[in-house]
Amino acid sequence: MDEFKFIDSITQDYYRQGSVVKGIGDDAAIMRHPYHDIVTAVDTMVDGIHFSKDTVPPFYVGYRTLAANLSDMAAMGGLPTAYMISLVVPKDYSNDELKEIYQGMDTLARDYHIDLIGGDTVIGDQLVVTVTIFGTVEKNRARLRSHAKPGDVVFVTGTLGDSRLGLALLLNEETLSEDQAYFIGRHQQPTPRIHFARELSSLKRVALNDVSDGISSEAAEIAKASHVTLILDDDMIPIHERLEELDEDKVTDYKYNGGEDFELIGTVPIKDFPYVLEAAKKHQIKLSKIGTVIDDEKTNAHVLLSKQGTLKPLKKSGYTHKN
Amino acid sequence: MDEFKFIDSITQDYYRQGSVVKGIGDDAAIMRHPYHDIVTAVDTMVDGIHFSKDTVPPFYVGYRTLAANLSDMAAMGGLPTAYMISLVVPKDYSNDELKEIYQGMDTLARDYHIDLIGGDTVIGDQLVVTVTIFGTVEKNRARLRSHAKPGDVVFVTGTLGDSRLGLALLLNEETLSEDQAYFIGRHQQPTPRIHFARELSSLKRVALNDVSDGISSEAAEIAKASHVTLILDDDMIPIHERLEELDEDKVTDYKYNGGEDFELIGTVPIKDFPYVLEAAKKHQIKLSKIGTVIDDEKTNAHVLLSKQGTLKPLKKSGYTHKN
Predict the structure, then answer these.
(1) Which of A149, B75, B96, B314 could hold B305 in an S-S bridge, CB 3.0 to 4.6 Å?
(2) Is B320 inside a domain boundary?
């Protein structure tokens, strides 16, 4: 068993509490309360795995960890309200560095009007930052991965692979003549798509997943949870024009398997797609149709990629975090 | 600044969300919702700091971490409903060991009828277990540390120092002719006092704190938050008879500074104390009056200890986790 999937493997057969609407297996958990549902998720980042001092200074360690949690909240269509942090801190870590981590979080927390309501700090060998996020969502409006249906449009926000290229630049694996700062910014300060996702709250059915591991992986999660097949069109996958300067293999890898863009991939009934386009326009973000949903009865695949006239299963190679 | 207190130091001046009833600074955070309040807390345990393979096998690592969180819930008077776990797992950790951690949690989760609703697993150098607990409490019935008033009775559940003695036995620092298993059990499988604390829910005002760092520390936290002084009577502090066999200095250290008993220390108006005694009897736990609350105007101390005819400030030496 892959240890990364350990949590998914221990899904309970039934829930003891009637209030649990969704437990393990989506971007966040949902608990029913009067008037609205509670959304909550936890995300952990480890020094040397998810970031290192060379590529992500303390301020951005805080910023990115909270951004990753807010991205889970966006992927559930939730409105964030509060967060808690747990820090494992090595002895040689200074108080100034700790404060910078907090300031990175607080900068983002101010933007979304959310509060730090609790936490724990302990000593350890390696910096570990764990954030628990809380929010609310209107009853039956949580955007589950299982909501896709044949006939839906598949869409994605922003451009893909930008964060991965930013990391490559930080690691000196790549150089660019222009736009270096843009890509590094996309790696260090990703933007959770909360406002856009909230704009969709009037729509009855939307499936959403955030792009933390690359769309090959996220699209497969939607397909699996919804028992459908997603057909993606290679020509329609949005990438930044600067990415096109790279080797073709790298472009393919970055756009399908580049993690931590924290964009949203989703599906909606075709009649609602114009509304989704309008919502993106209102919040000044790029939105692209990248495919369609079909019945999975005969495909025997979660995701099929249409490229240069052929239709092949899209390998879910996922994203291995590199520091 | 003590890094352990980092979280406490970053308390926000005001809360952006009107729903935050209590943020950082108590056993858990409280958020207002229609009909009831939401209680939530996060607790992290690190291999080599809070436990080690020698003293706490994986099953009990899970059990204790969830127990510590449930103890925070008890100290707020809350009814637990769900939890999330985040694991940082070293590469040499086996899946069987991971499963044992989970089974330790699930054993306790079954007892309290709560659900695992989410989590995250990542690779790292050192085992880190973080649990986030959720629950509910009736409006304005959260048992804050700030609720003590002059004239209150100070009480504590169970006997103190048992977990510390259990640890000493595991580390071969002590030997006992009898009851070894009892003390080791109190260290590895502490009992959160949820049922007892819930039994008090009809009382209007109770201050509660759980004994994670020793009562010298917990009593001081209540005194500080409530702007009062707690006078404790050395003769009335409950200890197991076997503890009396140890050196006097050790007895003093264990009972005041021995951490992780996960008992509850609290204060109530004197008129309500008989009800508290009855509640303890109903749940078959020992309950002792250990002191009284007085005005702090002239004492210039948080906690005063009455011992052999003298009244001296009780030093808060706290508990340093030993593995």
Answers:
(1) B314
(2) no
